[in-house]
């Protein structure tokens, strides 16, 4: 199935994966009892916005409403990032990448709607060395595999999100990751310390 037809089928199914295919690993506020607004209390616990979006967002931003399953997958990405000993910025890059690749849905094989073997939160491919289908569809494993590739990108901490994600994913749409940076940062800001 050609790429244009594949994207049309996926879009109709509501599973549009506008990102490319991974090439494989790189070896109004109410006042609370304290007298402070709830937002002020929550803000004190959130990671520093400068750590989350050090370069500011690039281009128009997209945003989707998340289901409980998608929030759970975002939390799994955050937990795996912490397990890997990486900072909040790595979680922002990972979540933005997953928003682009799968809309934070842990996709199994899409059959005829998918002309490759891309799976999971990051649309990683077993045939490209990311792991077995069972591994790739495990949120912790797939996140750790993505982060392993990210750590191999010299200067990932200081580069724009879309460049870091693209270097790992090798997408046919390298600038597409940038549109998810604000939502990814908001997710990390909300759940990093929970």
UniProtKB/TrEMBL annotation:
Signal peptide positions (record): 1-22
Keywords: Signal
Source species, domain of life: Bacteria
Protein name: Secreted protein
